[in-house]
Amino acid sequence: MSISTLSLSSFRNHKLKEFDFCKGLTVFWGDNGSGKTSVLEAIHTLSIGRSFKTHRQRTLVKEGDKCFVLKGTFLSADKKNTIAAQYDLSSGQKIKLNGKLITNRKELLGKNRVVVLSPEEQGITKAGPEKRRQFFDKVFCVTDTKYLELLQKYSRIIKQRNATIQRAKEGVVNTQEVESWNEQLSQAGVLLWKKRAEFMRNFNTSLQWLLMKNKEELEITVLYPEKKLDFDTYNQELKRTQKKDLRFGRTTFGPHRDDVIINWGGKNIRNFGSQGEHKLCLVFLKLAEAVYIKEKTGSPPILLLDDLFAKLDLERNKGLVTLFHIMDKEWKESTQTIITTTDIINIENSGMLLGHKEIKTHHLERTCNT
Fold first, then answer.
1. For 269-277, which contacts have Cβ atoms below 8 Å and span 24 or more sequence positions?
2. Directed axis angle between helix 182-213 and helix 314-331, to 10°?
3. Contact criterion met (CB below 8 Å) for 147 and 199
4. Whether 111 contacts 97, CB under 8 Å
5. Strands 220-223, 114-117: pairing kind
6. What's the whole-number average pLDDT of the chain?
7. Which residues pair with 337 in a beta bridge?
8. Which residues of the chain have pLDDT under 50?
9. Which pLDDT value is given to residue 332?
10. What is the pLDDT of residue 368?
11. At a CB cut-off of 8 Å and minimum separation 6, what does 109 contact?
């Protein structure tokens, strides 16, 4: 899977730009503010339906303009997809796949799988449970349509039950109305916990495989306390926590409250990790995401690396480059990698340029009209 061409119109600081990519390594280099990360955002938007930096799409529109337009050509083993995205300040976002309007993001997810490594992702190791749930759910959704459908179903029921809880709290309906959602929620919750536990085990296997291939010995583990509840037990727990739910105004029991513990050297990295450990841990989680996607789909995702080699020391950079090459060798195919940097010398010193048969570079300059 790879991207072949990309065009941006009024996106961030790009007035009108077109880029092409090779199947190996494409490097975007230039000063801060030249629009390098925006290129990765555009690819992510065409692949996932939104930016990885913000959920406020209107902030992506170039100042002074009314809409942005993105268009990309993506290639797989047997198919070419053209995806276009437009966001208008007055009418919102529209996405088209091969000329056909997409009405549900489910139609887009999984078409072009990307893994983005950016400072914006550091919340996975540093922030609260929600960030980790979002990360793992996204990985599982792009590789398994049934998981996506189950998660959407569960989320809809939670939203409806929470709305009923609010009405009951205000005295608009009686508490029996809240209980009417318990059966549906129990069925979806039990299935979601079962699926999530299975996929978490698979992800951990991908992570440990990666760590085993790494020349530096590191101990990183993902801990997910598995809930083995049946339908009746789940239903009983919802009844037991109902008074608490009414007090807080929301459902307090279920998969939407899960946390995933990420340990570094046997300790919870969120509480005990140094800045360097957080950065390196994020790198391995993201590379494990790529390995997981390859294992599940048979095809490596596109790697979007935002200024990776400015975050770590030279020796660790070289170690990561060796790991990239091992992954390609094991998979017997090149993983398309798109990387940004302020200093292309960092890329050269890391040895990244040596491992690719195809290399393309784009130099971006910081100007008023890019």
1. 269/125, 270/125, 270/126, 270/127, 273/125, 276/312
2. 110
3. yes
4. yes
5. unpaired
6. 92
7. 25, 303
8. 369-370
9. 81
10. 56
11. 48, 49, 141, 142, 148
Q: CB atoms < 10 A from the CB of 87, how many? A: 22
Tallying the residues shown for the chain, one arrives at 370
Task: Enter the tokens of residue 216.
Answer: 């530096």
Count CB atoms within 10 A of the CB of residue 325: 16
Q: Quick check: pTM over 0.70?
A: yes
Distance CA 193, CA 136 (A): 13
The CA distances from residue 101 to 9, 71, 107, 152, 194, in Å, are 19, 14, 10, 21, 34
Residue 260 Cα distances to 148, 159, 199, 281, angstroms: 19, 22, 13, 14
Q: What would the two tokens of residue 256 be?
A: 């939407």
CA-based nearest residue to 221, from 285, 276, 162: 285
